[in-house]
Amino acid sequence: MAHYLLSVHGPVERSEFGDYGSKEEMEAAFAATGAFNDQLRADGYWVFGGGLEPATTATVVDGQGEKPVMTDGPYLETKEAIGGFWVVEAPDLDVALRLAAEGSQACRGKVEVRPFEGLA
Amino acid sequence: MHPEAAAVERVFREEYGRLIASLVRRFGDIDVAEEAAGEALVAALEKWPSSGVPPNPGGWLTVTAGNRAIDRIRREKQRDAKHQAAFMDHDDTPHEPTGPVEDDRLRLLFTCCHPALDPEARIALTLRLLGGLTVAEIAQAFLVPETTMAQRITRAKKKIAAARVPYRVPAAADLPERLGGVLAVLFLVFNEGYLATGDGDPVRTELTAEAVRLTRILRQLLPDEPEVAGLLGLLVLTDARRAARVRSGQLVPLHEQDRAGWDRSLIAEGHGLVRQCLAVDRPGRYQILAAINAVHTDAPNAGDTDWSQVVALYDQLARLDPSPIVALNRAVAVAELDGPDVALALVDRLPLAGYHAWHAARADLLRRLGRSGEAKQEYDAAVAATQNSAERAYLTRKRDELV
């Protein structure tokens, strides 16, 4: 079995309904994502997952020097950023891609699939 | 090259796809397979010139390469714990049937044509791993520097290993979706064999044969997919004309070919496939191309060709695929129906400068219109745009016949 990071990408600037156009859309996406999460657990693919606070809440820490240096904001200044992710365990890429397609449909965002080199 | 060494290289190339596919299935790793195949070639070059080519060279290469791969895995196991973990997965049991058809090359084909890989890398990998072409040859076919092509292939192989692209024929539910990419690659492999891009052999029968063979297996796997039948029909109807297509090192165009030299059994097979497609009535690109070739191979002489049917089929194809290449082929057929002046007006509009077939078509139309000076220039441009020796020889002859 291999592990894959399924990361959801969306705009950094969020409306009052997150990445969604309206309250109804947001609620529908949350419900679909919840159902998808339940299915991942039931099918044994689930390792970990969750939605993230906006990228503007991020802090970059550089601990390579004598004292750690803090910088407010995300590491990359981009218009789009990771909004949430799953870590799944799957036998091969075809399964991971199928899960990503289902997850993308549920949360209404594009999903990047990236294999782990290994797990610590 | 020494004649014996050349013979060994030829056998090796013929066996390459089968050898690699069986090693990949057995060891689950493309790099291990390629390295072991390379070592088997070195062993063959040492041994065969004195001992002679063994009765079953493919079997000899498979056994030798398999032993070399096992040696390498043992060495890596001792050296590198990480590799040890990776090789724990390797599968040295005889493979189990995955579906209606089991074939190592078919599995590897679906891996090479995986939708997660870059489209250009899919073709390159298929030509490298199943066609046995060198990286240099593939680079030449794509008109990119060899280092660029080497990087593209290396990157794709790394992704297959790291992301675990599976070596298997997709499940029945996923097959139709995965099929388009595989058909496109098989068609391109056939075309590279039928009119080789490089300046080596003008026709690479190992590639045409491999494309036909893999398409036949797909046809067994998916008997109800009309586009598979269409591609097989297209390939066999094209391949049927192969023997008549090159004479004294020169390409012979369709209307000048000796039709007695066409392979009648392949033509009968192709016509049968086209009839089956018509009965299913779900037309697609390859079925239409097969039907066009059925019209050509139906005519006892070039003059008997039903050009209105050919043009009607190209009209249908252009609706599905409005590409300039389709428009160029349609225009060539229009020339037979409405005259070279009408066709030239169509051809001149197409953004295909630099494409050898566009220059060759213009040259032919200008020649037929008596515009010799311009025709000569176009023949020169066509010659400059192709490295295929038979095509160059034909175009040069046509140019030199002009006064």
**Oligomeric category:** heterodimer
- Give a short account of the largest sheet of chain A: 4 strands, antiparallel
Residue-averaged pLDDT of chain B = 89
Distance between the termini of chain B: 42 Å
Helicity of chain B, as a percent range:
over 70%
Tell me the radius of gyration of chain A. Answer: 16 Å
CATH superfamily of chain A: Dimeric alpha+beta barrel
Strand content of chain A: 25-35%
Which shape of chain A, going by the Cα principal axes? flat
List the helices and strands and how they pair.
The complex is a heterodimer of chains A (120) and B (403).
Chain A: E1 2-11, H1 23-42, E2 46-51, E3 59-62, E4 69-72, E5 80-90, H2 93-107, E6 110-115
Helix pairs in contact in A: 1-2
Chain B: H1 3-27, H2 30-51, H3 57-79, H4 81-87, H5 104-112, H6 119-130, H7 135-142, H8 146-162, H9 175-194, H10 205-221, H11 226-239, H12 242-245, E1 246-247, E2 250-251, H13 264-280, H14 285-298, H15 307-320, H16 324-338, H17 340-348, H18 356-368, H19 372-384, H20 389-401
Antiparallel strand pairs in B: 1-2
Helix pairs in contact in B: 1-2, 1-3, 1-5, 2-3, 3-4, 5-6, 6-8, 6-9, 7-8, 9-10, 9-11, 10-11, 11-13, 11-14, 13-14, 14-15, 15-16, 16-17, 17-18, 18-19, 19-20
